[in-house]
Amino acid sequence: MVASKAAQQLTHIISSWPVDPFRPNIQLKNFLKSLSAHPKLTPQAVQAAQLLRDNAIQKKYALSTKTLQPESMPKHYERLVEGYERSARGAGRSWWKIFFGVWK
Question: By its UniProt entry, which InterPro entries does this protein fall under (predicted)?
Answer without folding.
Answer: Cbp6 (IPR037653)
